[in-house]
Design goal:
three-stranded parallel β-sheet, seven-stranded parallel β-sheet, 407 residues
């Protein structure tokens, strides 16, 4: 069924559900009215094509547009509906089918399709694209329906952020997208910043090159990957491909598999990267320890903390005189309270990627500094990573850790 029809069906289901008899105290009449009005408006918009017409007009008016971001909006009325469904146990009918179709993937696909078509039809000058809540299923629909448009869009990008939110059958769905990744990343020859993320509670378990296909970007300066189970050699190979240009590397929620050790990755980053200014290692760990820590748990929240309840007060202070952020968000780098995808970083990386530990941290110049520790002295036990360890490792990689003056 075409996604537009699926969306309309879902909105009709919402309308029917809201109009059904419910105790007044279970559902705010104002929320009911809001959902019913939204149902009428959105069905009309989808059937008439008014959304693409308005988007084309808007994109044509934004003559200096640079950054486009697709977000999912959930307001108070939506939250009330979700709570009512949960309270009444009305998520599914007797046959197991959803009473109200609240899938994100059809809406994500429609939003992505219409925005891309509007951007391409107006020859927009934008060069940064962000999907912080991308559905793998919607990407599969894009692959089937508008692949050439997507490749044309990719050719002009300098910054790309993708974060996949749907953890169901994630490995299978991302594997199905492998050819699309190859085509898009091959077309995106001007990329300077790339971030690909997956849900922290369900890390991706595929080879990194199933996504990146040994592609080398000549202008790449900032790279990030989030929530993946990897071997050390995979990270090392990607870093070495970009050793001459990469100035920032984010490895958030990355879990090393058995027989891999972080010290091997860190050694390469410290000794072979010619331009590296910063590295972020937030919530890195080992795959087995991650599984053991959450064995029997009903759910692993996206903002879990490994090994510490501390926060990094020093990371709140952009000491570097040219420190800059992408969205002006503040990241306090508390591993247990923050999972934002925006960090702080030097002006050399004015993209969506920048470090959890700023390159601005003061460097020690005493004789104990740069050569006091080698990779074998980093305390890597091959089993788990504590919060203080990874903070020290971030500094050590860029030559800023001194055992006498760092804490």
């Amino acid at each position: 069924m075409p996604s537009e029809l699926t969306e309309i069906k879902g909105r009709l289901q919402v309308g029917e559900f809201v109009r059904s008899t419910r105790p007044v105290d279970f559902f705010d009449p104002l929320h009911a009215a809001s959902l019913q009005a939204r149902e009428r408006d959105q069905i009309k918009i989808l059937r008439s094509g008014e959304d693409i017409r308005i988007l084309r007009k808007a994109m044509a008016a934004f003559t200096t547009l640079q950054h486009v971001q697709i977000l999912r909006l959930t307001d108070e009325a939506d939250q009330s509906l979700l709570k009512l469904l949960e309270r009444d146990g009305s998520d599914n009918d007797a046959s197991g089918q959803p009473v109200v179709d609240l899938r994100w993937s059809p809406a994500c696909y429609h939003a992505t399709k219409t925005i891309i078509e509007a951007l391409m039809s107006t020859k927009s000058s934008f060069n940064k694209f962000s999907w912080p809540m991308m559905s793998p299923q919607s990407m599969l629909s894009i692959q089937r329906n508008i692949p050439q448009t997507l490749y044309s869009l990719a050719s002009g990008l300098t910054c790309l952020e993708l974060h996949f939110e749907d953890g169901a059958d994630l490995n299978t769905r991302v594997q199905e997208l492998s050819d699309l990744f190859r085509a898009v990343f091959s077309a995106a020859k001007n990329l300077q910043a790339v971030h690909i993320g997956f849900p922290s509670r369900t890390p991706l378990d595929l080879n990194l090159e199933d996504i990146f296909h040994d592609i080398k970007w000549d202008k790449l300066r900032a790279f990030g990957i989030q929530a993946c189970r990897l071997e050390a050699r995979e990270i090392i190979w990607l870093a070495r491909r970009h050793s001459k240009t990469l100035r920032g590397l984010r490895l958030r929620d990355v879990l090393l598999k058995e027989d891999s050790m972080w010290k091997d990755v860190l050694q390469v980053l410290r000794t072979e990267m010619e331009q590296l200014d910063w590295v972020s290692l937030r919530r890195i760990d080992y795959s087995n320890h991650f599984d053991d820590s959450w064995e029997g748990s009903m759910e692993v929240p996206d903002d879990i903390a490994f090994g510490s309840s501390d926060s990094d007060e020093e990371d709140d202070i952009p000491i570097h005189p040219s420190a800059a952020v992408f969205d002006d968000d503040i990241d306090d780098d508390s591993d247990e309270s923050s999972n934002a995808d925006i960090d702080h970083g030097p002006d050399a990386n004015k993209f969506a990627l920048s470090p959890d530990t700023p390159a601005s941290l003061p460097f020690c110049t005493c004789s104990n500094g740069l050569h006091a520790l080698n990779a074998d002295n980093l305390g890597d036990n091959g089993h788990s990573v504590t919060y203080p360890q990874r903070k020290m490792w971030e500094k050590w990689v860029i030559g800023g850790y001194c055992p006498g003056h760092s804490s």
